[in-house]
């Protein structure tokens, strides 16, 4: 087993933080150099958010595309059981939703208490995302549920 010094370990932690920040802020050039040098493409922060989750949640389309093309786990959950697609459906970035779904993200994945990315799109009023996610395969129950959610939400405006 190789032992590393405390300084080396601290530097490695700093490099991980830099990579997470590159994903958040869209610096695909620097992030790609780190991944090409061997950094785990599914690196997580202290809350279990992967590079893909952070890039998706911050609408960093170029980074999302790069990570997917380099085999990032598209449905890897964070510590709260949420997938990148669910996070984006909460935030409302249709462009990122399309990239994730077109690359195999599970739009029916349970993200806790039976909520799916479709549910998040509906609950947070992202009708364009809801329509995109339900357009390809209509599910009568989800259609009824989400129509009801839009109606209920309109009562509180």
UniProtKB/TrEMBL annotation:
It comes from the Bacteria. It holds the Pfam family Ank_2. Keywords: ANK repeat, Repeat. PROSITE patterns: ANK_REP_REGION, ANK_REPEAT. ANK repeats lie at residues 47-79, 80-112. InterPro entries: Ankyrin_rpt (IPR002110), Ankyrin_rpt-contain_sf (IPR036770). This is Uncharacterized protein. It comes from Poseidonibacter parvus. The lineage of its organism: Bacteria, Pseudomonadati, Campylobacterota, Epsilonproteobacteria, Campylobacterales.
């Amino acid at each position: 087993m190789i032992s590393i010094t405390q300084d080396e370990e601290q530097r490695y932690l700093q490099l991980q933080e830099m990579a997470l920040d590159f994903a958040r802020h869209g610096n695909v050039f620097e992030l790609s150099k780190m991944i090409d040098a061997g950094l785990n493409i599914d690196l997580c922060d202290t809350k279990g958010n992967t590079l893909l989750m952070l890039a998706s949640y911050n609408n960093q389309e170029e980074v999302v595309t790069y990570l997917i093309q380099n085999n990032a786990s598209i449905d890897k959950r964070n510590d709260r059981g949420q997938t990148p697609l669910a996070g984006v459906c909460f935030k409302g970035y249709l462009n990122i939703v399309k990239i994730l779904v077109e690359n195999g993200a599970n739009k029916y994945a349970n993200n806790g208490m039976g909520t799916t990315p479709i549910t998040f799109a509906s609950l947070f009023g992202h009708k364009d995302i809801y329509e995109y996610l339900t357009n390809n395969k209509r599910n009568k129950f989800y259609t009824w549920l989400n129509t009801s959610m839009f109606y209920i939400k309109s009562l509180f405006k």
